[in-house]
Design goal:
This protein is mostly helical and about 110 residues long. The chain has 4 helices and no strands. Helices cover about 40% and strands about 0% of the residues.
Length: about 110
Amino acid sequence: MVPIWERGPGGSGASVGLMLTVVLLDPASAQILNLPGPNLPNPDMRSPIPAPLPPPPRPPIINGPTLQVPPPRVYTSPRINSFGDQLSICSHEGAAQGLHGRKLKRYAQECADR
């Protein structure tokens, strides 16, 4: 039996030979082809590892120990006694005295108006 690539011009050997030539000369096939020997890169194509960066500069001291002051505090305003608050207080006082209904309502309004 004669291999395909060695067949004469009457057979399909020429087209197969051409096909094998194209496949073997294709740059992508060179990546797949494993030839014996060391696989060393071209020394001209190697790039050296760059030197490490210098350490960053020290940050400036802001509000250091010599100038340290206590942090600002949040201002809390005194509670404002609104009319509704005063009415609620007076209603509780009136209920504690035993008032209820219209008498409690009148007492709470008069007390809150003072």
